[in-house]
Specification:
Chain A is an alpha/beta fold. Chain A folds into two domains: 2-63, Alpha-Beta Plaits (2-Layer Sandwich), CATH 3.30.70; 83-333, TIM Barrel. Chain A has helices at 11-23, 46-49, 108-121, 145-158, 172-176, 192-199, 215-227, 255-262, 271-275, 281-290, 317-333; strands at 2-5, 27-32, 37-42, 59-63, 83-86, 89-91, 97-101, 125-127, 162-165, 181-184, 205-208, 233-237, 267-269, 295-299. Chains in contact: A-B, A-C, A-D, B-C, B-D, C-D.
């Protein structure tokens, strides 16, 4: 950590700051420049994070040097994490998670129809929401446990691992009985109690980036889960808020190689929520794979105009099939594989 | 609701769309322009919100006309809401809520010292966090129930209503036993289950705007609380994410008159979290009152450099006292009052 | 255009609005809903753009239906524009413009060295700045006409078309004597006089997206050039301002398919300025091609640490060569070609 | 300047970096931490700005310590700048510039009518555009020199200094003959050639903040004008791009005290362009004055529905009169004055 002092900070203020740092068991290196004095702090930076140095008179700026995340960092683990997600599906290390399904679970028949088609197209994980975070209290909020049962049945029937969103720490035990993977939605990326709670389960967690989260914020939220002992966190870019309303959110694909440099965790991309526009999803899915993403998360519905949630952003099954064809070729070019879901669900 | 069709949409597609709308019990008004056809929908727009019209072939855009919030709207209640918050303190209708206190509750002695000074300066509500939403799992997370007890004791002792943050639906009952007002933090503004839960209590709720929430998003989150039967929601602007990192967040004061036009709910301003800089807090507090805010929320700490959370953004007690002097004069100019906290807490 | 009226707008106000529209030679379709009245305007919408309808009492919102750009739109020209850029290089219709070179022209020897290496790697257009838009008046501002001469010489020598930035309408004639393609930088995207001026030349224009420009803003700026009679506009995405400062700007790749839907103009991507980080440029270049971009613009310098402008974001020649290898394979997969620069410059 | 090295940077890389810095005539202070080595650079930091240190192998981050602006900084001039603007009007040091008038100059009669009413209400500077930066090439672009003549006549007649926008370096001489103050619009804030050009005139410059400019960007653009020898720069906050489209832009009032800390230059606020909504302008004008702004810039039109540009955001003359009444009272509370425009124009 580097502490930049204000111009002309008097000696007694400098001594006061240095004394504070020594109290914390750290060493200092005071560098007097032509215009400013700078104090380098030598030792375990974490001790300082809680100490509000910026509040001390004379301090102009405090510049952290070390990253605040540990377990999520490449420095902690150099090689890519590779996880088993069930039914022979892995993610990371060149294996792509192709997650597909409707926004909300609406019934067994329709889910089975969609799931059958996306599996045939090459999807290896089935998604569907039973508890939906809706901005309006008057909108359809999901089928709840009935939806979970349907999802489990369809996943078992087709031998596909399933993923569904958990919104509330009180739902963790219930959902744990039905799902293979927990999803934490963008709006809950900094719901720290929920993160801690899924951090104590044994299920992989799909952690979606919050709409105004920077890359460090995302990795710090992953750190909450990892710190609880759960090592299987999959990050997911799904668009951030921006000024251009021609798309629902702004897809930030540069976060993919950015995360790859900072962390060993896999990161996938959700172009459905990012763009909200089916006409842009194919191009953005291909771009995601080319950018090095470990998977793509796409909403598919066989009758978007009757979907109970987010219908307009879903691909039709035949559009998904065509897209998967292209993704497979592209994955081949980059020596990536799309593991087939098979066998008995875990 | 207005449905704009793509250029040259064939008649059978138009008929299909019209038929869908009629199925929902609504009437249509089809207007054929030179380049496009537009369908006006006449009737209860809410029925349509769940129907994903944009997914129907031929539809280019769907333009909602009515606001999605009801109970929070000025159309539902024309006059300003005025709430009793305890100890003679009200908010709304010209009465200002002056909330002050430390970021986190650290101990009874220090809280009493800070609270005594801010009350003497004119603050009428005491704040302090017992459960802290920290971006790092390794940071101080608050004193928990011990902190709540301290807050209650100090509030009772000084006859001030108290406000503290609730982060988890499982904490609602516990915190309800100690606090006068629930605070929902920015990161939980769209934690819909938490909103529903406090919506079923009888305590006022201070709802902070999320970092990437628009004015409609904020009012929709208030709607969740109101829909649960709890009418006492106080909105709070606390800065949004922006590209300029010279301040912690970007204070959006225009939301104050914007909300006043759309809603009857009171709205206060938190310049401490918005700017993160004590040197900007006084000017922004005065600007907030001049903009028509129903109160100001300011962090105060008697020793910011020893604060366990967010010390650098706190005002010192004497700075708060000087600022309150100016706020009082300004409030007088605008015929606003700052009710004194007194008597026995409710 | 649709005019949404406030609830309970009195009849005389409605009549007044209708009369105004009729004055402009347009027809109206008044649709009285349960809660609101809506007026559809039938006729040439452009007439209305200058008429500030929102200022008329009773009007709540004015919703335009038609796009404000004409010559740039797909509706004006359905098939992709394909341009000749000189030396056998074309862009659009499956041909990729691979622009490479240093940020600033620093001398003939170094430019020739860089240009030779990028041409050997497959670049088909040479870039270099002679006039640099620098945020500080004390920074290196470019070599001016001396730089232009160097660029022309190197371009002629290697038979590569060259592109350089024009910042001032007074420079257009001078730069026109040396360059093959004008570049309009992001900061000048809405310098409308400059746009008009290059719109009257016969040279292709590389128009970079402004840092806070939406897709419509970008296409409207292209419209200024097209309206002057110059049909050869190449759009360029180079990142927008965002809250996450881990990259210099935020690369918005979704604008590529978004533009393709709205316009016939080619669009290329500049990952160098977008990310400002050489470690992210390869992944973002590949993603750009996968997203459907008509080219990639990359800064290359053989000694970034001695570059006079933007050194840290440049690729080294051998990094560019490796990247071009991958881009070529990817282009092949999508049936795109990279025309070789050859023969005599135009 | 502080140079943070990557973990485990080898000694020879460190030596290479140190050697580079010494070549530039600067001294170094190398501080070897537990995890990283940090190099403090002692001497004139500006020498380093052009040297792309981040490109040197081993360098992770370069942290500048000194501000890049000089002449605009408080360190260069401690006391507030106070300027004479003509007709007895000054700005800065407690004197408020109250700029009012229509968006565009449309004719002498209408301008005189508006100007007479705003002067009677207390405005001391008249604004009006003769050259309009319009996003569409098909929109009304202003009356040009005819407009300038009208503005001059009305200003002379009423003894008010006038301000009008200059968009192009080629217009500087012409506009200089008619105006008292140059306005640089938000879209041209980084049109560096234009800034240099007005920096060589003797007229005060009203410099509007760009839509994606941070506070440092704004002050650097002011630096361009100051470096040319023109000391009279008035900054103007007019809203930045944000994600919430309920207002046209996002008014950032915190920049007012932020600038006051960093610079001696006066800063005013334009709530008309910032919000684009007349219903929000009064509250935001009052908030601006309470925040410490040195003036307010408001669009006023006597018949907004017939205005040729930006009508919907203009106040009516009687609304402006009522607002000025409130502003005067508020200014009194803060011991600010609104100099009356009088006598002969300069």
């Amino acid at each position: 950590m580097i502490i930049v002092l204000k111009p002309n900070t008097p000696s007694d203020q400098i001594d006061h700051i240095v004394a504070r740092i020594h109290e914390l068991g750290l060493r200092t290196d005071v560098s007097r420049g032509v215009k400013r004095t700078i104090i380098g702090v030598i030792g375990e930076e974490d001790v300082l994070r809680n100490a509000p140095l910026r509040a001390i008179p004379g301090v102009e700026e405090v510049v952290p040097i070390l990253k605040p995340f540990k377990l999520a960092s490449r420095e902690f683990q150099a090689e890519d994490s590779v996880f088993d997600l069930g039914c022979g599906v892995t993610v990371g290390g060149g294996a792509l998670a192709m997650i597909a399904g409707p926004c909300a679970i609406e019934g067994e028949e329709i889910l089975l129809e969609i799931a059958t088609s996306v599996k045939a197209a090459g999807a290896n994980i089935l998604r569907g929401g039973a508890y939906k975070p809706r901005t309006s209290p008057y909108s359809f909020q999901g089928l709840g446990e009935d939806g979970l049962k349907i999802l489990r049945n369809v996943g078992d029937h087709l031998h596909m691992p399933v993923v569904t969103e958990v919104m509330d720490p009180r739902q963790v035990d219930l959902i744990d009985r039905y799902t293979d993977i927990f999803q934490i939605g963008a709006r809950n990326m900094q719901n720290f109690n929920l993160l801690s709670e899924v951090g104590q389960t044994k299920r992989p967690v799909l952690l979606k980036r919050g709409m105004s989260a920077g890359v460090t914020d995302l990795l710090m939220s992953a750190e909450y889960i990892l710190a609880g002992g759960n090592k299987r966190v999959i990050l997911c870019e799904r668009g951030i808020r921006s000024f251009d309303n021609s798309t629902r959110n702004l897809l930030d694909l540069a976060i993919v190689p950015n995360v790859k440099g900072l962390s060993h965790l896999p990161i996938i991309v959700d172009p459905s929520h990012a763009t909200g526009r089916p006409d842009l999803i194919p191009a953005m899915s291909l771009a995601a794979v080319a950018a090095g993403a470990d998977g793509v998360h796409i909403e598919v519905h066989s009758c978007p105009e009757k979907a109970m949630s987010d219908g307009p952003q879903a691909l039709l099954p035949h559009q998904y099939r065509e897209l998967m064809q292209q993704i497979r070729e592209l994955a081949g070019l980059f020596h990536k594989t799309i593991p087939a879901a098979r066998g008995v669900a875990p």
